[in-house]
TrEMBL record:
GO CC terms: nucleus
Organism (species): Zizania palustris
Annotated Pfam families: zf-MYND
Protein name per UniProt: MYND-type domain-containing protein
Zinc listed as a keyword: yes
């Protein structure tokens, strides 16, 4: 499992570090100069789903908008081809079973936000079971290392 130290190492390679800023908490800071327009940080999202305006407007994997085909099982997810469907299959397989079990009325209530939360839980489950890999920058457990700005309920 990826650790805080592995994240620090990955950031150092990119010319970045996590620093403590008095009164603000932790911050991501540059440890070298960057050129104007240079990409500082780029990372694949932990999970994603199209924020669909209309059904079938984007591929659930790459967000392409052409040659889309509906998943034949759940009939909610859309893919632009077999490569995208295969790339996302480990995650979608679990989501697909859950969606397929829903009634048509319930399927209509699936918003992109609900699907995103379901995918987040499923991806975390798959990483905990080691069914899909995690890296120093792709690990939900790093969320636990974030500094909270929310007061515990007993202070309120």
């Amino acid at each position: 499992m990826a650790s805080w130290a592995e994240l620090q190492e990955e950031l150092a390679v990119r010319g970045l570090a996590v620093a403590s800023v008095p009164g603000k908490g932790r911050a991501l800071v540059a440890t070298r100069s960057f050129f104007p327009g240079e990409v500082v940080v780029w990372q694949e999202p932990y999970v994603s789903t199209p924020n669909k305006i209309s059904e079938g407007s984007n591929c659930d994997n790459c967000f392409a908008s052409s040659n889309l085909r509906k998943c034949s099982v759940c009939r909610v997810a859309w893919y632009c081809g077999s490569a995208c469907q295969k790339e996302e299959w480990k995650l979608h397989q679990l989501e697909c079973r859950a969606i397929a079990a829903l009634t048509e009325d319930r399927k209509k209530m699936l918003t992109p936000t609900i699907r995103l939360m379901v995918r987040l839980v499923l991806r975390r489950k798959l990483q905990n079971e080691k069914a899909i890999p995690s890296s120093g920058t792709d690990n939900y457990n790093l969320v636990d290392a974030l500094e909270s700005r929310i007061l515990p309920f007993w202070y309120i």
